[in-house]
Amino acid sequence: MEGILYKWTNYMTGWQPRWFVLENGVISYYDSEDDVGKGSKGSIKMSVCDIKVHPTDPTRLELIIPGEQHFYVRAVNAAERQRWLVALGSSKAGTLDSHKHKDLCLSAGPDGLKTKMSELRLYCDLLVQQVQTIQTQYSADTEAAPTVEVARLPASLLSATCATFIRTLEECMTLANQSLTPDLRPTERVTTPLSAAIFSKITQMKRSISHPGTYSFDRSGVLKEYVSAGQRSVQRRNRTCSDSSVY
């Protein structure tokens, strides 16, 4: 992907148009499209770059390599920023996928998981924004619904963001599983609330055998009937013994 983005230069010149090119996991910028073959003014490798959206300005985004580089850029409108965000996120995820096993092993740990979680929050925010954009298009004019051409772009952006969100979520789960100690990892046997309740009742029933009449359940008459039957049996034996003693 390539096109014009406004880059913050300094307080003297402010935002200046630059030609950005995203290719092979690297985003580079030039003074103009004609300067593409003359060498870039700067570049960032997406695999080590953090993407951040501005909380209030729907056209701004930031490309950050912590402690090294920080690009403040702005698109011409919100839709253009969304296209760049999806392309940047897909490029970043694609770069990680090409070296998936190696990258996940190197980034396993709290720092790697924290980075992935920040990416996940970014894509979650994008999903919310894109859904709101589609809702706005359909509610702005109730008399005339948007045409297929108008609705296709937001829908395609939403689809791409969903795919990237799911892929990033899977990577988060992989990193989280690697970060957990063996004692904290989930076992194959899963105890459900129902099975736990059944196990508790069985345990109490076993205890009631050695202590008849001690335990009973209010919601289930099984144990109560069992104890009552045991008590009636004892009473019958007592009556039998007393009758035999008379004779």
TrEMBL record:
UniProt cross-references to Pfam families, sorted A to Z: PH (PF00169)
Record localization: Golgi apparatus, trans-Golgi network membrane; Membrane
Membrane topology: Peripheral membrane protein
Domain spans labelled PH: 1-93
Gene Ontology CC terms: cytosol; early endosome; membrane; recycling endosome; trans-Golgi network
Main location: Golgi
InterPro entries: Boi1/Boi2-like, PH-like_dom_sf, PH_domain
Signal peptide, first to last residue: none
Keywords, ordered alphabetically: Golgi apparatus, Membrane, Phosphoprotein
One Gene Ontology term from the biological process aspect of the record: retrograde transport, endosome to Golgi
Protein name per its UniProtKB record: Pleckstrin homology domain containing, family A (phosphoinositide binding specific) member 3
Species the sequence originates in: Tetraodon nigroviridis
